[in-house]
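in:
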């Protein structure tokens, strides 16, 4: 009886899928089912995924917020068709049957081998029909092959901590790749074939603890998101300035970053999110010769989410008083750590005010000092 019930449920869901009003909605459902490794998925992450896949057209005139609104309409359509559930807290819920349905529909095109203790990637032949591949959380040490993947749009290789070698030719035959996650791997450089990924929209390299050389990234002209967080890079490469479509640049916890050359950031005229919290690079109102300065940063008119470190109170005052900053203030979110005082200042445009947060050890010292004075 339970099998018959399951089959009836499955057929009902398949009917719902077939009756979705557009091919776009069917693609969105299949993609989010592939993306969902747990029963719940963050809405914003899912919408980013759809943007990278090209299901949401992000034009130059459009801000990310507008793309989120388009994504929200697609989510509402899938919810109304009973394909997903939308929960409080910006979460989308899937059930196992839904994921099974998607994986059956795309059995040849979706390859998911997550946390299976794989020592090697699947054979070259397995890649040929694939559209999306996830080999996350395995024990793959090298990728020596040169797979022919004419339809591959998404490749997850993250959390293969021992992955140190990718053959120079590996990406040569992936002309449609849009999403590449190499985070938490052991690579120290990008293979030269990275420059072939001319349609790539996301490159995730965060927590690649050995990565010091990202030569070739400048060829990725369609890149929307680049994540270099917690990598040991010491200098932001000049070729980053070639990524003129970039909307999100994450360099959180780049504790070895010593230099950002002048002239790079002004070319990123569409940049909306810049995350440099916890970086060792401290911005100044007037940078050293040949280095980026706060004045240069403030020229990025589309920024609405910014985290950075400034060297001194004087630099922070310059930042706060800048007329450019005033033009941001309607909807911008800023987190600014002042190195000189170990203070973190936070600004929310909707409240139009700064609030300060001391580092934990400073706060403890203040509490102890206050307690001591009360005893006295």
């Amino acid at each position: 009886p339970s099998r018959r019930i399951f089959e009836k449920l499955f057929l009902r869901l398949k009917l719902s899928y077939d009756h979705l009003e557009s091919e776009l909605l069917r693609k969105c459902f299949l993609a989010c089912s592939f993306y969902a490794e747990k029963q719940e998925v963050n809405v914003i992450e899912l919408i980013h995924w759809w943007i990278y896949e090209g299901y949401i057209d992000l034009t130059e005139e459009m801000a990310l917020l507008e793309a989120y609104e388009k994504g929200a309409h697609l989510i509402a359509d899938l919810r109304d068709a009973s394909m997903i559930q939308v929960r409080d807290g910006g979460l989308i819920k899937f059930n196992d049957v839904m994921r099974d349905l998607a994986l059956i529909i795309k059995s040849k095109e979706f390859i998911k081998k997550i946390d299976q203790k794989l020592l090697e990637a699947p054979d070259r032949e397995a890649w040929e029909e694939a559209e999306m591949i996830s080999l996350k959380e395995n024990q793959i040490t090298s990728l020596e092959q040169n797979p022919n993947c004419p339809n591959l749009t998404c490749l997850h290789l993250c959390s293969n901590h021992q992955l140190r070698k990718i053959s120079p030719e590996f990406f040569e035959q992936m002309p449609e790749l849009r999403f590449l996650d190499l985070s938490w791997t052991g690579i120290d450089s990008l293979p030269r074939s990275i420059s072939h990924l001319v349609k790539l929209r996301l490159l995730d390299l965060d927590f690649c603890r050995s990565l010091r050389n990202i030569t070739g990234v400048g060829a990725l002209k369609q890149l929307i998101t680049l994540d270099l967080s917690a990598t040991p890079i010491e200098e932001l490469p000049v070729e980053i300035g070639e990524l003129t479509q970039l909307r999100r640049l994450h360099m959180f916890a780049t504790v070895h970053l010593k230099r950002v050359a002048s002239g790079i950031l002004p070319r990123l005229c569409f940049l909306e999110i810049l995350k440099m919290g916890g970086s060792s690079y401290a911005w100044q109102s007037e940078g050293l010769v040949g280095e980026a300065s706060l004045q240069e940063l403030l020229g990025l008119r589309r920024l609405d989410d910014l985290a950075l470190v400034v060297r001194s109170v004087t630099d922070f005052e310059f930042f706060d008083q800048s007329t450019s900053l005033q033009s941001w203030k309607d909807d911008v979110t800023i987190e600014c750590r002042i190195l000189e005082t170990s203070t973190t200042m936070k600004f929310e445009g909707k409240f139009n005010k700064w609030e300060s947060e001391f580092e934990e050890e400073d706060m403890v010292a203040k509490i102890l000092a206050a307690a001591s004075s009360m005893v006295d």
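note: The chain has a mean pLDDT of 89.
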